[in-house]
Amino acid sequence: MAVRGSTGKSAARGDPVLITAAQHSYDEQHRARVRKYTILMAFRIPALVIAAIVYSATQNPWLPLIIIGLSVPLPWCAVLIANDSPPQKREDIDRYRYGDGAGRPAIEPPRRNVIDE
Fold first, then answer.
1. Integer Cα distance of 7 and 93 in angstroms
2. pLDDT score at 117
3. What's the pLDDT score for residue 68?
4. What is the Cα gyration radius of the chain?
């Protein structure tokens, strides 16, 4: 049995049809935010090591200062990005719609004859 969604594509039995517009759970959102923060902050220590390597290789104090200067706002950016709400998805997802999508119900109600007086 195939189910038709709003996109007109048939979904096989194993493919779920989304029936809600609910967001991900708080735990999933928190894990994603912690992952973003960790990745951004992980660039700070290598930036300091790279600055030391650049200084020892070139003996130019300006290049390491530029690298360190670029790493200074990383904690601020990491907090802002990690605390941002998850993006709203704009893709057309296969959602369950009552009826055939043309405004008609899937099952027509029975017609009742009315006796005129």
1. 7
2. 63
3. 92
4. 28
